[in-house]
């Protein structure tokens, strides 16, 4: 049966494009072919179809590449699994053989004998080291006690020295604070005195201005009375 093609994305553009007769008719009427919008639209349609074909081919190639990667990965996993199974079976077969069992038992017996000998030697060694350790512990405890007593004395002397230094520093700080407060008080008194002096001078100036103003106004009044 005939398969009906689905409309491509560029089909609406083909329906909008003019027919050959119309293009031919327009070419006869227009002296310039390059100025026609129809001449410009044809290459655009061709490039769109080429681009769609390239994209489709690229998607197909990408799909094939991914499928090949999946197949290779599955093949690699299957090969690794088979190799591991073969190695495991070979090891199990070797361990189940009589020769290997005898070798394992021989090594176990030798290990037990060696461990027993090492334990006996270790016990004798620990007895000697315990005696030496007891003696050394007594010496260490005595030295520790003497060191602690010496450190205690040094700590007490250090605390006394720090307290004396702290006392001197506090006294010096108190003196500096009192000196600073005295300087600050003197500075405030000086500023207050200067401020008071400026206010008095300003008041005197204002009084002089008022006095001068009264003196200037009185002669004018007397003169006006004389004219009458």
Q: In angstroms, what is the radius of gyration?
A: 58 Å
The poorly predicted ranges are 1-41, 221-228
Structural class: mainly alpha
- What's the total helix number? 4
- Averaged pLDDT: 77
Report the helical percentage: over 70%
Largest sheet, in brief, is: none
Strand % is: under 5%
Principal-axis shape: flat
Give the CA-CA distance, first to last residue: 142 Å
Count of extended strands: 0
- The succession of helices and strands, N to C, reads HHHH
List keywords for this structure.
mainly alpha
Characterization of this structure:
The protein is mainly α and 228 residues long. It has a domain of 45 residues. This is Arginine and glutamate-rich protein 1. GO terms for molecular function: cadherin binding.
Topology:
Layout (H helix, E strand, L loop, with lengths): L10 H6 L3 H10 L7 H59 L2 H130 L1
How would you summarize this macromolecular structure in one to three sentences?
Residues 1-68, 139-172, 189-228 are annotated as: Disordered. The protein has helices spanning 11-16, 20-29, 37-95, 98-227.
């Amino acid at each position: 049966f005939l398969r009906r093609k689905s409309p491509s994305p560029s089909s609406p553009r083909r329906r909008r494009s003019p027919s050959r007769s119309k293009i031919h008719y327009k070419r006869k009427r227009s002296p310039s072919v390059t100025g026609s919008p129809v001449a410009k639209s044809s290459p655009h349609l061709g490039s769109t179809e080429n681009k769609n074909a390239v994209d489709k081919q690229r998607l197909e190639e990408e799909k094939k590449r991914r499928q090949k990667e999946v197949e290779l990965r599955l093949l690699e996993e299957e090969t690794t699994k088979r190799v591991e199974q073969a190695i495991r079976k070979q090891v199990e077969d070797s361990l189940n053989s009589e020769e290997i069992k005898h070798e394992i038992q021989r090594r176990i017996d030798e290990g037990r004998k060696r461990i027993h000998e090492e334990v006996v030697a270790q016990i004798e060694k620990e007895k000697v080291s315990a005696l030496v350790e007891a003696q050394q512990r007594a010496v260490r405890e005595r030295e520790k006690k003497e060191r602690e007593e010496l450190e205690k004395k040094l700590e007490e002397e250090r605390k006394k020295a720090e307290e004396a230094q702290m006392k001197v520093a506090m006294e010096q700080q108190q003196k500096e604070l009192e000196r600073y407060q005295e300087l600050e008080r003197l500075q405030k008194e000086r500023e207050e005195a200067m401020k008071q002096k400026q206010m008095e001078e300003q008041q005197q100036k204002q009084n002089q201005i008022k006095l001068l103003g009264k003196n200037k106004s009185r002669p004018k009044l007397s003169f006006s009375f004389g004219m009458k």
